[in-house]
Design goal:
The chain is an alpha/beta fold. It has helices spanning 40-48, 69-73, 92-102, 107-120, 136-148, 166-177, 190-193, 213-224, and strands spanning 3-12, 15-25, 29-34, 55-60, 63-64, 76-79, 154-158, 182-186, 198-203, 206-211. Helix 5 runs parallel beside helix 6. The radius of gyration is 18 Å and the shape is globular. The two termini are 35 Å apart. The structure holds adenosine-5'-triphosphate. One of its GO terms (cellular component) is ATP-binding cassette (ABC) transporter complex.
């Protein structure tokens, strides 16, 4: 998908979360790194239409996130920092089924899509579980299933490996690598994005580097002073 920022910025009162940004993205995997408070989540929220630009515009395949809000939103899926909060129905099976139900599917059709999607992410065994019975990695994958069943063009991850152990980190990394969908991945876990061909570095609300994972990581280390 073609994501385009045209002098888009995001301000909260007199605080600038993201300075005016002009940028085009179409790579399958885009990493986003930077210090805390550098504007990464603001950037991601603008893509997903969860925040509206204070000025300028953000378009997804030409659809404006403000003027074509519904159609643009349908193109994106967002996995939040605490994916447990976005699972709202008691059982994983029910929650993943919400999307197809809201598209008007019923009974067996919903069940089939849910089964296929859980199998796609290797979590069929979680179907009858409740969110509080899942590990952090399993929650990420369950949220991913609930998002991907809606067939977004791009999935945005906000620190997907935060607080995960090595095994779960590897599992989530593999799930992202295996996605057919485009992925925009915000991360403090530099290993996760190191081999992405395009990684953006934000600093103090501005895009300060745009390049390969290796080069972006080096720039980020310079900024962090370590
Ligand atoms: N709703 C809000 N109201 C006011 N200021 C905000 C709001 N959301 C973010 N900010 C401010 O905007 C700036 C950028 O925040 P943002 O969440 O985009 O950073 P981030 O790079 O994602 O940080 P982190 O790595 O800590 O998640 C910060 O100074 C933050 O305090």
């Amino acid at each position: 998908m073609h994501i385009r920022f045209q002098q888009a910025d995001l301000r909260y009162g007199d605080r600038t979360a993201l300075k005016p940004l002009t940028l085009e993205l179409h790579e399958a995997r885009v990493g986003v790194i930077g210090l805390n408070g550098s504007g990464k989540t603001s950037f991601a929220r603008l893509i997903a239409g969860l925040a509206k630009p204070s000025s300028g515009a953000v378009t997804l395949d030409g659809l404006d996130t403000v003027n074509d809000e519904k159609a643009a939103r349908a193109k994106t899926g967002f996995i939040f920092q605490n994916p447990g909060n976005q699972i709202i129905l008691p059982l994983i099976r029910e929650d993943v089924g919400l999307g197809p139900k809201s598209r008007g599917l019923a009974g067996p059709d919903v069940d089939r899509q849910v089964e296929d999607t859980l199998a796609r992410f290797g979590i069929s065994d979680l179907a009858e579980r409740r969110p509080h019975e899942l590990s952090g990695g399993e929650l990420q994958l369950a949220a991913l299933a609930a998002v991907c069943i809606n067939r977004p063009d791009v999935v945005i991850f906000d620190e997907p490996t935060n607080q995960l152990d090595l095994r779960n980190r590897a599992r989530v990394k593999a799930a992202i690598e295996g996605l057919a969908e485009q992925a925009v991945v915000i991360s403090h876990d530099l290993d996760l994005i190191a081999d992405y061909s395009r990684v953006l570095v934000f600093h103090e609300g501005a895009l300060v580097f745009d390049g390969s994972g290796d080069a972006a990581t080096a720039r980020y280390r310079e900024i962090a002073g370590c």
